[in-house]
Amino acid sequence: MAGKAVVPEGFYSHPSFSAGVLVQGGRTLYVAGQLPLSPGGELVAPGDIDGQVERVWQQIEAILAAAGGSLPDIVRVTAYTVDNAYVGAIVAARQRRFAGFTPPASALVTVAGLAKPGALVEIDAVAVLP
């Protein structure tokens, strides 16, 4: 593989994917779809979209930090949700995170389900590090 895995200490990890992968000389970071999981892989904040979105963004920020980046380095975000009723909460959380600097190109998709039963949201990202 042409990339270097980025998995923050204490993070839920799975043998089939990395939380993040650095490529292109360590400047581009691909953040895997983050589900609202505890370090042990259990669902966080069942039934609570605000709690789940917050957990997902905490994970993304931890992956960025482990790679030497931060939120302003994100250039692309894709969010997936299981119900259009959650779109407002997802958008509001994204707007809070990117207030004060250029927001990333973004997409938000409603899907039939996510890999973890009970998960209401999953978010992936691409960042270009300084």
The secondary-structure class comes to alpha+beta
Oligomer: single chain
Q: Runs with pLDDT <50, length 5+?
A: none
**Strand order within the widest sheet?**
1-2-3-6-4-5
H/E element order: EEEHEHEE
The radius of gyration computed from the alpha-carbon positions, rounded to a whole number of angstroms, is 14 Å
Q: Residue-averaged pLDDT, rounded? A: 93
The percent of residues in helical segments reads: 10-25%
The biggest beta sheet is recorded as: 6 strands, mixed
Give the amount of beta strand, in percent: 25-35%
- End-to-end Cα distance, whole Å, is 22 Å
Judging from the principal axes of the Cα atoms, what is the shape? Answer: globular
The counted number of beta strands is 6
Number of alpha- plus pi-helical segments: 2
Write the layout of secondary structure elements.
Blueprint: E1 4-6, E2 20-23, E3 28-34, H1 49-66, E4 74-81, H2 87-97, E5 105-110, E6 121-128
GO molecular function, one term: hydrolase activity
Organism: Phytohabitans kaempferiae
Keywords: Hydrolase
Written account of the structure:
Belongs to the RutC family. Keywords: Hydrolase. This is RidA family protein. This protein is of the alpha+beta class and 130 residues long. Helices cover 22% and strands 28% of the residues. The chain contains 2 helices and 6 strands; from the N terminus they run E-E-E-H-E-H-E-E. Strands 1-2-3-6-4-5 form a 6-stranded mixed sheet, covered by helices on one side. Strand 2 and strand 3 form a beta hairpin. Helix 1 runs parallel beside helix 2 (87-97). The longest helix has 18 residues, at 49-66. The radius of gyration is 14 Å and the shape is globular. The mean pLDDT is 93.
